[in-house]
Structures are given as structure tokens and as C-alpha cells.
Write a structure and sequence with these properties.
Elements: H1 14-28, H2 40-50, H3 55-68, H4 72-77, H5 80-87, H6 94-108, H7 117-120, H8 128-139, H9 148-158, H10 167-180, H11 186-199, H12 218-222, E1 240-250, E2 253-258, E3 269-270, E4 273-275, H13 282-294, E5 302-310, E6 315-324, E7 337-340, H14 342-347, H15 352-365
Parallel strand pairs: 1-6
Antiparallel strand pairs: 1-2, 1-4, 2-3, 2-7, 5-6
Helix pairs in contact: 1-11, 2-3, 2-8, 8-11, 9-10, 9-11
The structure holds iron/sulfur cluster (SF4).
């Protein structure tokens, strides 16, 4: 046991735990859409989605994605905007951009997904968890796919009470799982550990009475509440970001702008706007942001209420204003701005908050349409206008350690 890692436990007996877990998994595994076959491409897409999205939420996004891009060649041939549009709503859009970039790299190399963890890690955006999950689940490479569920389960089996986010504890728990990994079924074992963590060994209230491996679990045998291992993490309060958004219309179209390719919500389209500075009114911020971002002088803006949205690391409060340009000719645009009809906007990849703004306008106008008093928008890289997220913590089950 590495120094500083408190563990009173020993590794569960692999001769007993792995067979019991696999036996349970064969009977209890949920019929999830990515389990219908062992297509490496589908497994890869699913694991990328599951890295920061819960299983129930990921399923419809997975179905939509593989329907739009049934093969890795289809994904490689798609534009970034097409991929982002299909991914819309799943969040963490860098995952979609990386999937496409990796697909392009794979197709350039012949079209076959690499079969080993080491080779998979050379692809854009493929980290240790995705590489080991795909290598073991799709190609049966005997490597541990270490993610939040496995860390929790292994910590309980061994009653390891250190912080599972630290490299030292992760390393120890990875070794625990590696010792249990059956060489003839590494993929099934990894999947079974995750399934146990997602359905029985739950974060706060583990269902020990129905656990197939309770006999090998020290937390269960020795503690009144196994759910206290590992130590519950207290999440920091999510800060509130207040921003003004301008939906500007002219001749039946809205002005939208594309966010920078890299970073939060990269490549998505939104209305112009930005953070409300201390001491500034929402209206003043709307006028200032519009001028700073587009060079346009705001016409008389009409307040259209507040749209709220919560991201994993912060909450946003978007003060929405609409306005109409009187000019008969639309002002010239650069490559990141576009005048779009409502139908055109619906075809673009949009952040959730922008969807909500459109819905809010629709509520107020029977149906949202430019000219019913809208305004426009775009947001600079570092300000939450439409909405920008700070680099963040994951919220879902398969968060890679
Ligand atoms: S006995 Fe309880 S704590 Fe231990 S692995 Fe099973 S569900 Fe988790």
C-alpha cells in the first residue's frame, strides 16, 4: 500500500470474486443499445458519451449518433457542424469534435480502429479511460478500464478510505482491479464492475443485500454504512454568472455567431451577448456587448425576461433583449456571424441556453420569429454570453479518473 493510503483491506480473492461478478453480469446486464453487438466503433462512441453522461441520458444520444453516422467512415466524412448538430444536447462538445478528428485519423490510416490501448491513445482526444475501455471491451486486451464506478467499488472491496481522485489511491485501486481481471474475459469484467457501480454499488446507498460480491467486500463486512467509503465528496456551490443576450433581427432573420472552435461549447452558434459587469445594468451590458462584438449600435432594446440554465460548474442567468435593425440592408458579416431564418437557426448546432431563449421568444410571440422584437448575438471566448463554461468537472458515472 503506498504511503498515505489508508487501507485496512486486502485484495478480495480473485478466485471467487471475478467468477461471481461475471456470473451475475451475464444474467443482470441491461440491454443497452451499445451492447447489441461488439462493433468497436459503436463501443467507442458509447464510451465517449458515457464518460460524462449518465446511461439513461446517453442512450438516445447514442442512437441518434450512430443512426446519423453508422460507420467510422461516415463520421470522418461529416463536417464539424453536422457532428455538433447531432451531438446537440449531450454537452461537453469537445468529445464530439475529438470523435470526428479521431475518425478522420483512423480513416486516413486505413479505416480500422486500433486494437490496443497504446495505439488507441495516439488518436486525438483518446485518454487512458477510453483507450482501455475500447481495447478491453472491443478487443479483449487485458487492461483495467478505470473510471469512477470501478474506483468506488474497489475502494469498498478493500475498505480504502483515501481520496479516490488522488493518483496514489487511484493507482492502488487500479492494481486491485488488475489483480482480479480474468485474462480470458477482461472486457466483460470491466463492464461488470461498471454495471455493479451503476446499478448496485451506488455512490451513497449501496444495495448490499442484493450484491453478488458482498462476500468479498470489506466495507460491507466491517462498516455499519459501506456508503461512507470512499469519503463522500462535497461539491462546491456552483457560481452564478449573469449575462445579457441580444436577439437582433432584420428582414426576417436573426443575427447569430459561432463560438470559437476550441473551448466551452466550441463551434456552436448563439446570439451575441456577454457577462454583466459589476454595477452594470443588464440593458447597459446588452448594448455594450452588442457594440463590442458586432460594431452595431443597439436600437431600442426590449427586455424579454430571464432564461436560466445550469451547467456542471456554474449556473447562468441570461437577461434576454430583442431589437430590430431598421436598416434595409443587412450589415456585412465576417466568417463567424450569420443572419439566419428560424428554420436556418434550427439546423445549426446550438447550446441548450440558446434553445431556451428561442423557446422563450416563442412563448411570448405565439411562435418565435425575427421581427417580433428580437436581437442578435455572439460571444467572445472568455465570457459567458450565450454561455461559456469554465473547464470542468464531470458529473456522470463514467468520469475517467
Ligand atoms: S457489498 Fe455493498 S459496498 Fe460492497 S461491493 Fe457490494 S454493494 Fe458495494
Amino acid at each position: 500500500v503506498p504511503a498515505g493510503v489508508r487501507s485496512t483491506g486486502t485484495t478480495p480473492d480473485p478466485a471467487a470474486v471475478a467468477p461471481a461478478l461475471l456470473h451475475w453480469f451475464r444474467a443482470a446486464r441491461r440491454p443497452l443499445p451499445w451492447r447489441r453487438d461488439r462493433d468497436p466503433y459503436r463501443i467507442w462512441v458509447a464510451e465517449v458519451l458515457l464518460q460524462q453522461t449518465r446511461v439513461a441520458q446517453a442512450a438516445p444520444y447514442f442512437e441518434r449518433f450512430v443512426r446519423a453516422f453508422p460507420t467510422i467512415r461516415d463520421l470522418a466524412a461529416a463536417s464539424e457542424a453536422q457532428v455538433l448538430k447531432v451531438w446537440q444536447g449531450a454537452g461537453y462538445y469537445a468529445r464530439a469534435r475529438n470523435l470526428r478528428a479521431a475518425a478522420i485519423a483512423v480513416v486516413a490510416g486505413g479505416g480500422e480502429l486500433p486494437r490496443t490501448e497504446a495505439e488507441l491513445r495516439t488518436l486525438p482526444g483518446v485518454g487512458p479511460y477510453i483507450a482501455s475501455a475500447v481495447a478491453s471491451l472491443a478487443f479483449d486486451e487485458p487492461v483495467v478500464a478505470l473510471e469512477a464506478n470501478g474506483l468506488r467499488v474497489a475502494a469498498r472491496w478493500t475498505r480504502t478510505e483515501g481520496d479516490v481522485r488522488t493518483p496514489r489511491v487511484r493507482s492502488r485501486l487500479g492494481a486491485v482491479l488488475a489483480a482480479l481481471l480474468p485474462p480470458d474475459a477482461p472486457g466483460a469484467f470491466n463492464e461488470a464492475v461498471m454495471e455493479l457501480g451503476e446499478t448496485i454499488c451506488l455512490p451513497r446507498r449501496p444495495r448490499c443485500v442484493v450484491c453478488p460480491v458482498a462476500f468479498g467486500c470489506r466495507a460491507f463486512r466491517e462498516l455499519p454504512d459501506p456508503g461512507l467509503v470512499p469519503s463522500p465528496r462535497r461539491l462546491p456551490a456552483r457560481p452564478l454568472v449573469r449575462a445579457a443576450v441580444v436577439v437582433l433581427s432584420s428582414r426576417g432573420r436573426w443575427l447569430v455567431q459561432r463560438r470559437p472552435a476550441e473551448g466551452l461549447l466550441g463551434g456552436l452558434w448563439e446570439f451575441p451577448g456577454g457577462k454583466i459587469e459589476p454595477g452594470e445594468t443588464a440593458r447597459r451590458a446588452a448594448e455594450r456587448e452588442l457594440a463590442e462584438e458586432t460594431g452595431l449600435v443597439a436600437p431600442s432594446l426590449r427586455a424579454r425576461g430571464v432564461v436560466r440554465h445550469a451547467y456542471s460548474h456554474f449556473r447562468v442567468e441570461l437577461h434576454v433583449f430583442t431589437g430590430t435593425l431598421a436598416s434595409r440592408s443587412l450589415p456585412p458579416l465576417d466568417g463567424v456571424r450569420r443572419w439566419v431564418t428560424p428554420a436556418g437557426l434550427a439546423r445549426l448546432p446550438l447550446p441548450k441556453a440558446t434553445e431556451r431563449i428561442v423557446a422563450r421568444l416563442a412563448e411570448g410571440a405565439g411562435r418565435a420569429s425575427p421581427g417580433s422584437g428580437s436581437r442578435r448575438g455572439r460571444t467572445p471566448p472568455s465570457r459567458p454570453g450565450g454561455v461559456r463554461r469554465p473547464p470542468g468537472r464531470a458529473r456522470a458515472p463514467r468520469t475517467a479518473p
